[in-house]
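Hello forum,

I keep getting stuck at the same step: I have a sequence, I want structure tokens, and every attempt I make locally crashes halfway through. Rather than fight my setup again tonight, could one of you with a working pipeline run this one for me? It's a single chain of 396 residues.
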Amino acid sequence: MSHRSPPGGPSSERGMVLVSAILILTVLFVLGTTAILQTSTDIKTAANYRAGKAAFYAAEAGVAEARSRMRSGSVNQIIDNAPLEAGWAAFIGTEAEAEELGYDGTHPLHILTPSLQSGIDYTVRIEKEIDGSGNIATNSSGSFVYLVNSRGKCGKARRQVEARISSFSPVDPPAALYVKAPATIQGSNTYIIGEDRCGFNDKPGLMTPMHRDTVTKIGNPFICGANEPCGGSEPWDVVGYGDNIDVQAMIDRFKGEADFYYNVSSATHTAMAWGEPEMGSTLKHPSYCEGTNIVHYNTNNTDIKLAGETKGCGLLLVEGNLEINGDFSWNGMVIVSGSVICLGGGDKNVTGALLVGGEFDADIVGGNTNIIYCSSANNKQTESLPWRVLSWKEHF
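Reply #2:
Ran it on my machine without issues. Output:
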């Protein structure tokens, strides 16, 4: 006689357990597969994101190389040898990659040059911007505007950016010394010379936007230049009601390119050196300097005193007041938003120009102070800067 298990007995229970186990395993398998697929997708997404960012940074590096190599006097400078031709274009990269950006080896106005970078993959095209009238576009100072298209690569990722660049406009100081507030010039050994001792662009010795009588003479200082020659017995070449220059705006224009930046408050710096000016035979002769630097002092509305044998070449930018004490030599422009005071003994020579403005009095107190206009020293500052980016956008 056979025996059957009653409903709900051991055989039925074993069947239910088996079905449940299969269902659980199935669910776990589906969940595991989904997790693996999701993880794989996340990894691929992250990898693609990283590659895209690397390609973008490579494209930006291409723009940076173009800016640097368009600068006058740069290493391996890219020169626009057809400035009046809209069809001129320069390419950075390999020939095969450059051809994808329009390079034509048979085109007489196309230039191809290898990149200065070996570890970053980008290709660059540089060409003049054409305005809505079909003319070569210029910036506010008349310099050409160039378009830089840079394509960066990382693996299979490609990113492309376009930047509009132009050179820094030359600064043309209106005089050897420009002051926006009342000034005192004193001392028999003080010479402010507006005759261009480095070229043929003579300027007044001193210019102010105020009345010329706001410049006070004590003793027998000499101010000569375009209006009164330096050979006179007591020249006083002071021009009133001259240009009203925004001195702070000039500082703002260049301080972002500073090689040396100091954030101070009523500080004294001694024997600073930002270059080695070679002095002329006398203090009334211009100095000479090979290199250039941009030095920026933010005094937080106070002052900086440069004492001892401080010297430099380039642009000296001071937001606040500047006091010069002791020997001082500078080749290039000194631009100060506040007051300038020259005190104490020592020889002082500025070859280039000195521009002083702001709400404080600009008092130039004598000693052996010589400010000598030098066009080449002034022009050298902007020529040495990488070109500025006017705007940029990314191509998708």
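The chain has two domains: 63-167, 177-383. If your local run keeps crashing, start a new thread with the error log.
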